[in-house]
Records
---
Amino acid sequence: MTETTQSSGLAAPSAIGEWIGGMRRSAEFIVIPLFALFVSASLFSLFLLALGKSPQTFFELLWRGGFGTEFSWQNTLVRTAPLILTALCVAIPARLGLVIIGGEGALVLSGFTAAVVALPLLSWAPPFVVMPVMLLTAAITGALWIGAVGALRHYRGINETIASLLMFYIAVSILNFFVEGVLRDPSDPNKPSTAPIGPANMVGEIPGLHVHWGLAFGVVIAIVLGIVMSRTTFGFAARVTGGNVRAARAQGLPVGTLMVSATMIAGACAGVAGYFEVAAILGKANGSLIAGYGFTGILVSFLARHNPIAIAPVAVLFGGLAAAGGLIQRRMGLPDATVQVLQGLIFVVLLVSETLYGRFRLFDPEARG
Amino acid sequence: MNDALSTVLLAVFAGAIRVSTPFLFVSLGECLTEKSGRINLGLEGILVFGAMTGYAISYHSGSPWIGVLAAGVAGSLFGAFHGWVCKLPRVNDVAIGIAMMLFGTGLAFFFGKPYIQPTAPRLPALELGFWSDVPQVREALKINPLFFAGLAVAIVLWWAFRNTRWGLIVRMTGDSSATARAMGYSVDWVRFLATTVGGFLAGVGGAFLSLYYPGSWTEGLSSGQGLMAVALVIFARWNPLACFAAAVLFGGAGAIGPALQSVGISQGYHFFNAAPYILTLLIMILSISPKRSLRGAPAELSLMK
């Protein structure tokens, strides 16, 4: 009897101590990326000063174009939706130690197949049939496309980074081949495109937000995957594999199945992004699908440290950056690649900041004082 | 029919030489970098940035050769940065390569905007077809000196890896950094130098793109050549001479589409555009086996782990 009280009396403070220690440890994962963002902003300011442009104007316009008004928020959130999903396409395989950078290819190809599968249905099927068929087609296309990368990696030992990027170029060629060929809509004089899916089959807006449902899908998928990766045996097995493949094999974990299923989930996420680009924004498949969301998604995932829950807020940040790009370009007379330079700079600084982890005693619960 | 066939074959031959030159330079750069035990995926970014720098400097200086040199210097700066950053603990060379790829491309587009319109002096070609009366043959044998320079670099690298002290040091760092350290060499320093020189070669490859073929600066100039070169090095088993052969093969695959178009066959043009990527994937699938380690592969390469 006395023993139990004693042990529970001891357990309480150590639980609190553990909790504080955990907080200190996770603070490191927030403070260092924020520091990296700050350093990138400073370096970019120097870059602008060297060009004779005002950094102050730049950041003011960035704020106004991305977050300043209701309209700019709307613009930002519309870009956030695909960024969340393409970032998940990087984050889930990253847990297994795979670096997939071809999410853009899965997005492009899935958008294309979604638009194409709708074509024979348009004349007779109601929207509640067409829409799920399109969504499912897109998700399956993406899952097979990136899943193939995972399978090649596991069964043939082919580097997933190179393979996924090569497959991006193949996806673009497939899109161009059909869109400029047999599937080109002759009634569209502007850009070579497939026939439109029609206004009835378009995805609507979330009530009160003026942002399409893709955003809600993205957030929900991110939360679900966050729970799956941190609270289920699948997520645990994935993290073990990412930590040490040999140990995972020795434990009898099905490494191949894990790799293929993780890459398939990842591809399905990018595929859903492609579906919403077609069904909520473009209304058809054409070259505008290649908008670089897949590549920005890589950066979003790295900044969120491949944590699905953290991806949503980081995606808002980069959605805002993309939304403000046009305004900055017009007002400051800078080329449209300005946002790309800033993104690249953030990416480089962020990766260099990896070297700072574990160097500060402040974040180390074992160290006293 | 026969006439059309010979036209296509000549065009593929000429195209193979033209298209292969940037592959050759980037793959030699990557080969050197990987031999030292590091992988630089940022060569794609260096290729694009080199293309822009070469074109801009050629436009301002009036000499394309100064442009080529400037592109090489720009490339070596990028390479040096990569080499320096990767020696810091916990910094992943593959991820940094991806970041440098996006950063280099972004910078090239940023500074390259004013150079899309103007025409810069191009690199001259050697007229090796002077002995022939057939115009197609003369056209096909117009070969850029950089192609021969690339061949020379390939031979020198191949020879140097086998026969020189420096070649041995680079190979040793790539195979076992512990051994190199025990022998008293600085692993970081060797890798830094290898990445820098690798960046120089990739920059020169980029200058070829903008100053010879296709011969102008546009934002769609490079489409993954830098990355395909990485796959090509694996296919070539880290042998510079095999890199040369592989680059010509890739060049030939890339030249089929335009060659067919020149005789009026434009069907499936986009599929022929995809040919080099599909070929790269197929070659990787056929030439890599998960069962055994690859002959010639540097043991320290993270790509192989």
---
Amino acid sequence: MYKGASHKIWSVLMVSPFVIFFLLFWLLPLAFGAWISLHNWNISSGNLGFIGIENYKSILTPGTLYYDLFINGLKNTLYFVVISVPPLVLISLALALIIDNLPEKFKPVYRTIFFISYSISVTAVSAIFLWLFNGNGGYVNNVLESIGIISEPINWLGEQPYAWVTILIATVWWTIGFNMMLFINALDEVDGSLYEAADLDGAGAFSKFVSVTWPQIRNVAFFILIMTVIASFNLYGQTRLITAGGPEQSTNSLIMNIQTSVFSMNQLGIGSAMAIIMGFIMMLIIGFQYWISYRNKE
Amino acid sequence: MKLTKLLALVVSVFLLLAGCSSGSSSDSEKTKDGKIKISFINGFTGGDGAYMKKITEAFNASQDKYVVTELQEKDHYTKFKSGDYDLVVVHGNNLETYKQDGLIQDIGPVIKKAGIKESDFHQAGLDIAKLEGGMYAVPLDIHPLTMFYNKDLTAEAPKTYEDLKALNTKLQAENKDTYALGVPSSGLVEFYMLMIAAQNGVELKDGEKLNFAQEKYADALMQFHDMIWKDKVSPAKLGLDGEFQTFMKEAKEGKAYQTAVALTGPWFYGAAKEKYGDKLGVAPIPQIGSELASYGNAHTIALSAKVEDDQVKEGIAEYLKFMFTPENLLNWAEGGQAPVHLATLEKIEADQEKYQIAYQNSKQFENYVNPPQVYQFGEQMRYMNESVFGKLVTTENFTKKDLMKELEKASKTAEQIAKTAPQK
């Protein structure tokens, strides 16, 4: 239909909205952030000059204010990534498998039930979990005491490991629906004749999952794993609103600490440098995951 | 299309978008009907916001020369730093930081134009707004740590720590789930720590930094630990805003604690009044330390350093003159705040029932100790707020030696923060 120069013009026009928005809202801010990280940039007083890698040095030198802020945030975030990624992937896979095996008429109902929590804002989720896990007269404590599991109230939000448990439960409840939907779509794509063949060979449910389902959904599972790691690294709303970073700064995530350095301490240069280092760490972890996946494929 | 043309297109879009953004200007802006615009940003997003709006709207209705655009934002400090506003509400403990960062200017000449004198304010408010080199804000109110009490559980407001202990003994004898008061592990803990410093005569300001590592201060703070673990006047491990949450609960056999008294922020007054109605008592905080003193934060109205235009300054003077008229400022007291404007205080005293919380809090002005004026006060306090107080009140076998170690760490952090101040 389109030929020659006209074809090229149309191609450029079609792709230009993406290119422009990519430049404006991704590449340009990224480059600007990297540039700011090399400056002594104060939110109040503005750019106080180029200082090279001094911000990075401050963040990575033990004993400095920014080192403590960065390392504390990084430790807490990594801890959350480790405890949250397995349940977020495995529970969503289990839910998807359960729904996949339900009669057709029930599938949309359960899909909606499990997915609906994902549509709620983090503010509402936090309010619900604050009420449920209140240490003094909260719903969860009341239920556990009534059925005799605990004899005295648990300080869910003010003591570890309970604070992390609360954050984890809230996160799983809130976001599990998204991963589950991706798994359901992947399961829908699995060729039904493969299961029939496995049935003829006398394969059980576990054997069918290992030999038929998993190889077919592995690529999607890997994508979900990466997306979940990224999402867990970006932990902010739940710890800001449910535990306020406590107890004793143990749930202060890296994003929260970057925000503190920029908007409370006014150190935009330091905050940008922290964000760049965080980006590198995420890239390293995801690169490592890619490498593992690539090696397994081979 | 050649690459150069594509680049030209992208650059054009950037320029177009850049052209759409508003640039900052020190010149006065005018509305279509020729009124000079004054922008005012504050963080009054709670119940008090409507009362400030009422004052602003009344001013705008009275004016044919100026119009004040009031913006109420939760994160108003960030917006102020990155935007272009003429007036800003700054908390008393942030004023020194804003001054050192060059974000605000001496408001003395403007209030002089408005006919407002220093003698129009209570000394407690003036002490907050006057910094080295001038008057950097108009003091609006002080919101000190306030005592609420449940008249069903205690007819009289406790005045001393001994009163609290006696009340606790009485309540515990009746019901094991009812206590005198609740000590939170996070939330309003900065008020608690500064209050106990003030009530024990501890001076935290040490040059440009806060020095927490003082034996006397450790002794004073240990009282909060003892209130929970030794004297047991408070339940343990109450968590965020525990002082107020427990006050609002109803004791339930082993499942929920209730307290008779809450040492809390006056902003919780609306919720407490709704629950308890006439059974809610409000009073100045009791003497817990060795002397009576009160502590809290304050709202002040500061003038942006960007304001240069004389017409805008004149408009601001008119607005302040209107606001600091008792009939108008009474709206602020109705919103639950205690103004430091003396003529308004007289009106509040004359109608104590109507302005219950404003009146009770104004009684605390006499022994009010203001926040130490240091650069980045909030950041210097952060480790104390987020870590030290929590450990102190939630760890049963926490000793003074453990506390001193934490106070040393907090002081070291505060010193590092103080060093980030702009060079004078």
